[in-house]
Write a structure and sequence with these properties.
This protein is about 20% helix and about 40% strand. It has 2 domains: about 1-120 and about 285-295, Diaminopimelate Epimerase, Chain A, domain 1 (Roll); about 125-285, Diaminopimelate Epimerase, Chain A, domain 1 (Roll). The protein has helices at about 35-45, 75-85, 135-140, 175, 185-190, 230-245; strands at about 1-10, 20-25, 50, 60-65, 70, 95-100, 105-115, 115-120, 125-130, 155-160, 165-170, 195-200, 210-215, 250-255, 265-275, 275-285, 285-295. Belongs to the PhzF family.
């Protein structure tokens, strides 16, 4: 048996055991992808991130759910960068680094807000794809009624590095009572059967937030729900400019997520239109929780 140290950091909250937990593994160059997968499964969080050397950027990041590798993960990126900065592996006077991911080289910036360290990451160019499945079955898979879905906004697949189905809902009331059946997702999401589902609303608990959301994992991921979702929050900014305010040049807002599962967190979203598309950024803080020793074959 081998043993590996995994750091548990929470992203999108400065309070330990709130926000979204991620496993962080430093200096992972000696691990095979099979070993990374085994570690991620044993850790059991929605994502575990492995930090490696890179010939193209300051760091290379690889992301694994308990079930498979993914291209990009917002909260795990924030957790990884927060860990390196707060534990002294990135100098205090260094305000930016680059990371190599499967969606390309992405910039990371650090700043202090109200005496808290924030990590800002750029995401991939947004993409959208139509959903043509059954809205009735979709509602049933989330444990809500068709009447809860806001048909004034489109249901679409969106990605800024990881695909998810964006589902607009009318009110907050159904979020607490949602009982998703992830096993139903692949047969409903016929265009992208391995995709997660991201229900959202513009009704919020916190007056400072513009959107409230939950995020339910693909059954292939080995988890049920993602507490506070960075990539889905980023693509929501692009969704807003693409479908809801086509004349606005940029948008900044806060997404609240995780209240229903006692993981209250905040994602700060900033999207700018460019000549070739959109630049999507998300920001969040973090918290160290504990060190975990994982034994694996």
């Amino acid at each position: 048996m081998k043993t590996r140290k995994v750091l548990h950091f929470d992203a999108f909250s400065s309070t330990a055991n709130k926000g979204n937990p991620a496993g962080v593994v430093w200096e992972a160059d000696d691990l095979s992808e099979d070993e990374m997968q085994a570690i991620a499964k044993l850790v059991g969080f929605n994502e575990t991130v492995f930090i490696l050397r890179s010939d193209q950027a300051d760091y290379q990041l690889k992301y694994f759910t308990p079930g498979h590798e993914i291209n990009l993960c917002g909260h795990a990126t924030v957790a990884a960068m927060y860990s390196l900065k707060t534990m002294g592996l990135i100098d205090d006077d260094c305000n930016s680094v680059t990371i190599e991911t499967k969606v390309g080289i992405l910039p990371i910036k650090f700043d202090t807000r109200n005496e808290e360290l924030f990590v800002t990451m750029k995401q991939d160019q947004p993409q959208f794809s139509p959903f043509s499945g059954s809205v009735q079955k979709l509602a049933a898979s989330l444990g809500i009624s068709v009447q809860d879905i806001d048909d004034t906004m489109p249901i679409v697949y969106g990605s800024t590095g990881t695909w998810t189905l964006l589902v607009p809902l009318k009110d907050l009331s159904c979020f607490l009572s949602m009982k998703p059946d992830n096993r139903m997702f692949p047969e409903i999401l016929t265009e992208k059967p391995r995709t997660s589902i991201h229900p959202f609303t513009f009704k919020t608990i916190d007056a400072a937030a513009m959107m409230h959301a939950r995020h339910f994992s693909s059954p292939y991921s080995g988890t049920i729900e993602d507490a506070v979702t960075g990539t889905a929050s980023g693509v929501m900014g692009a969704y807003y400019l693409t479908y809801l305010n086509k004349h606005l040049e940029s948008v900044e807002f806060i997404v609240e997520q995780g209240q229903e599962i006692e993981k209250d967190g905040r994602v700060y979203v900033h999207v700018n239109r460019t000549g070739n598309g959109m630049d999507v950024y998300i920001s969040g803080t973090g918290a160290y929780v504990q060190e975990i020793d994982i034994r694996f074959n």
